Amino acid sequence: MPGAFEELRSEVLGCTRCELSTTRTQVVFGSGPSDAAVMIVGEAPGAEEDRTGVPFVGRSGQLLERVVAEELGLARDDCFIANVVKCRPPENRDPRPVEVAACRPYLADQVRLVAPRVVLTVGNFAARLLLETRDGITRLRGRSYPFGDATLVPTLHPAAVLRGGAVAMASFREDIRLVGAVLDGAAA
Ligand code: URA
Ligand code: SF4
């Protein structure tokens, strides 16, 4: 549905539904094909993303991109990549519940229109929002979850992996490998 997707993009690019619209440089709608098999959902744009308009281009994004390439053989342009909130929170603070609530319908529309086979959530925010749970990512990760017609695989945020050393990196890799198993039909 390319028409509907482009309509959504232009709506979101001009959005002023929450306060983050007053401090952002630009909206970071999301990147990648609107018919991608894999959708990656992060938390919020950071400084680099706010500057470029593209999600996951900073240090976290580079790690994510590398592990997705190594474990899945997919380039970033093979995946649709978006965030829970589309505008950068000032000083990279956590998005507030009112902001997440305001932006949530856009993510829901993106999931519906892209209709991916696997949704890979990175970090607490995306996993908690999409799985409708208060559990933390260390509890949630390591398995997959039914998610409408798709399968959801939650993993750590790459920023946490960068801080977390070898153990965090091993978990991150394992989760991303699970995405591959789901795509291959070898896991639910
Ligand atoms: N961290 C995120 O969660 N999303 C981005 O786009 C960049 C960093
Ligand atoms: Fe709109 Fe979402 Fe940006 Fe808030 S974060 S202004 S709801 S696009």
Question: If you had to describe this structure to a student in words, what would you say it looks like?
Answer:
By secondary structure, the protein is α/β, with parallel strands linked by helices. It has a single domain, classed as Uracil-DNA Glycosylase, subunit E (3-Layer(aba) Sandwich). Helix content is 47%, strand content 12%. It contains 7 helices and 5 strands. Strands 2-1-3-5-4 form a 5-stranded mixed sheet. The protein is globular and about 45 Å long. It binds uracil and iron/sulfur cluster. Residues 12, 15-18, 20-21, 27, 85-87, 99, 102-103 line the site of iron/sulfur cluster (SF4).
Distance between the termini: 27 Å
Number of domains: 1
How would you describe the shape?
Answer: globular
- What assembly state would you assign to the polypeptide chains in this entry? single chain
Number of strands: 5
How many separate helices? 7
User: Which CATH first-tier class would you pick?
Assistant: Alpha Beta
Share of residues in helices:
40-55%
Strand residues, percent: 5-15%
Question: What is the CATH architecture descriptor?
Answer: 3-Layer(aba) Sandwich
- For CATH, the homologous superfamily is named as Uracil-DNA glycosylase-like domain
Task: Tell me the major beta sheet.
Answer: 5 strands, mixed
Task: Give the names of the bound compounds.
Answer: uracil, iron/sulfur cluster
